[in-house]
Amino acid sequence: MKRLSARLSPSASAAALGVRVSSRHLHLARTAQVQSSSLLPRAPITSSLRSFRTSPSLRQDDDPRKQPRESDNVDVLIIGAGPAGLSAAIRLKQLANEQGKEIRVVVLEKGAEVGAHTLSGAVIEPRALNELIPYWKDKGAPIYTEATEDHFVFLGEGFHVRLPTPPQMHNKGNYVVSLGNVVRWLGEQATELGVEIYPATPAAEVLYNEDGSVKGVATVDMGVSKTGEPKDSFTRGFELHARVTMFGEGCRGSLTKSVDKKLGLWKESMAGFQTYGLGIKELWQVDPKKHKPGKIVHTIGWPMDFSTYGGSFLYHLENNYVAVGYVVGLDYTNPYLNPYREFQRWKHHPFVKDTFEGGQCISYGARALVEGGIQSVPRLAFPGGLLLGDSAGFINLPKIKGSHNAMKSGMVAAETVFEALDQEEHTIDPKAYPDRIKSSWLWEDLHKVRNIRPYMAKGLVPGLALSAVDTYVFRGNAPWTLNHHKPDHEATKPAKECKPIEYPAPDGKLSFNLLENVARSGTNHGHDQLCHLTLKDSTVPEKINLPVYAAPESRYCPAGVYEYVDSKLVINYQNCVHCKTCDIKDPTQNINWVVPESGGPLYSYM
């Protein structure tokens, strides 16, 4: 069994990633996105991030896809270099250093660099960061813009009404940030402590011991053609075995989904399933006269009807940047609804458009987000593994925040696991983790708002009224907990029961053609790599999705991945921004999102 680090050269991450990214993203140098990316200040990437892959020698007489994988042992393995995973890694190393112990902590990240796949609004509540790294300001954290004003606005068609800002949306003491830049900085802090971070290393398979406990993961095979055949560049995946594996993949992680399928994690939640939203975001550089650093605006109402959950955010960062986005609950019923085009027409509302007139859209992205609250929190721990952050469902939806809870979950997980490292058993069962989560401020944060999303499922007006009673009368301690009724994909109605929606054409100034915006995400996948959007039954799109639901995948996807040509589904996987919406919203659950060998978005300042 070979030690992973023995296969690696300690080259600087910029050089390592330059070798990786240049071949996959070469065409981006010719796009408007790359031309505009010079506008985006980037948090530096630590020089100690190391490239993961080397090419093992293969016996030429065997199918290389069946070659045994090389493997290595680590103490703690973390899947995903997001706020949760990096906070767990940092806290583990802090505790080890305090007690003079040597532990090996490895983080695998599928993005080409730390932060490349990170997208959020974002307004960050620094509570967890204050606990994890108290002197973060002195350490140069890219957190510059303190919240200065909050606005909560109802939009009608052509008019607006300012509403009282709910207490959950008060942001005094919070900061408007690029979460991607914060994550890059957290990566630096982790590597300074001795954490090993391997970007461009998608974990594709969960490994199990004979007793059913999690053993670790295997990384994806590289160099597989779109036909499934190994190319000359084929490289077998690598196994990492750990005493405990932390899954911090974010929303609808593919490995988390596979663990749920084996262990039934969500069967132990109140709802029995998670419910989701789709967030679509743009970053603009606006006229300095229209820029107010720290200004925070949220809207509800138009263009959604009163039965569809959705709303917007508009956050003023530093340097004349404004982050703007729209979130649509994926429990919407009308298959003709197109979340991307709803967002584009929303920007033409009189209350909104003035901010962006004369400005420039410089980046775009999308991702699904968890909305289920504590009713949808699954079994959090199991022998050999546990769930972190969005993988567990720790977003506070009324606050429209999750990074503080993600970080706290990572810290709690680290403290739980560190105490168990001295036990004789090799595999750690972190069974104390759920109780520690429930006794932390994270659980209190979620418990007080647990009924808000179920209220909103009753419609906008009843939902607002019930939420007000819960918030102002019961202060989040109502003597009931409402449940969610059904998974999002089951909410979609047949097309014959719904009215088609007509959308205005984009003007190219405030609103944009979808593929024009996808180019701003830096997204790319190799044209001869295996498609990562798999169909359980290739006949379902033509037999069910198209005739019954009017091809909903051609509308809910915010990257133009799915289209029908001569009544046949075409999957343009190269466009995929890894949002996971198709995996969630497909009416028959026929689409299965798995990690590609490489690629995805290359987000800057998102």
UniProtKB/TrEMBL annotation:
Superkingdom to which the source organism belongs? Eukaryota
Which reaction(s) are listed as its catalytic activity? a ubiquinone + reduced [electron-transfer flavoprotein] = a ubiquinol + oxidized [electron-transfer flavoprotein] + H(+)
- This protein's major location comes to mitochondrion
Q: What Gene3D superfamilies does this protein's entry cite?
A: 3.30.70.20, 3.30.9.90, FAD/NAD(P)-binding domain
Q: Where in the cell is it found?
A: Mitochondrion inner membrane
Is this entry keyworded Metal-binding?
yes
User: Which residue intervals define the domain 4Fe-4S ferredoxin-type in the entry?
Assistant: 567-596
Q: How is the cofactor bound?
A: Binds 1 [4Fe-4S] cluster.
Q: Per the UniProt record, which EC number(s) apply here?
A: 1.5.5.1
Q: Which GO terms describe its molecular function?
A: 4 iron, 4 sulfur cluster binding; electron-transferring-flavoprotein dehydrogenase activity; metal ion binding
Q: Pfam families, from UniProt?
A: ETFQO_UQ-bd, Fer4_ETF_QO, NAD_binding_8
Answer yes or no on keyword Lyase: no
Cofactor section: FAD; [4Fe-4S] cluster
Which EC main class describes this enzyme? oxidoreductase
What keywords appear on the UniProt entry? Answer: Electron transport, FAD, Flavoprotein, Iron, Iron-sulfur, Membrane, Metal-binding, Mitochondrion, Mitochondrion inner membrane, Oxidoreductase, Transit peptide, Transport, Ubiquinone
Q: Give the CC-aspect GO terms.
A: mitochondrial inner membrane
Recorded family membership: Belongs to the ETF-QO/FixC family.
Q: Fetch the PANTHER family from UniProt.
A: ELECTRON TRANSFER FLAVOPROTEIN-UBIQUINONE OXIDOREDUCTASE (PTHR10617), ELECTRON TRANSFER FLAVOPROTEIN-UBIQUINONE OXIDOREDUCTASE, MITOCHONDRIAL (PTHR10617:SF107)
Q: What name appears for this protein in its UniProt entry?
A: Electron transfer flavoprotein-ubiquinone oxidoreductase
Q: Which organism is it from?
A: Acanthamoeba castellanii (strain ATCC 30010 / Neff)
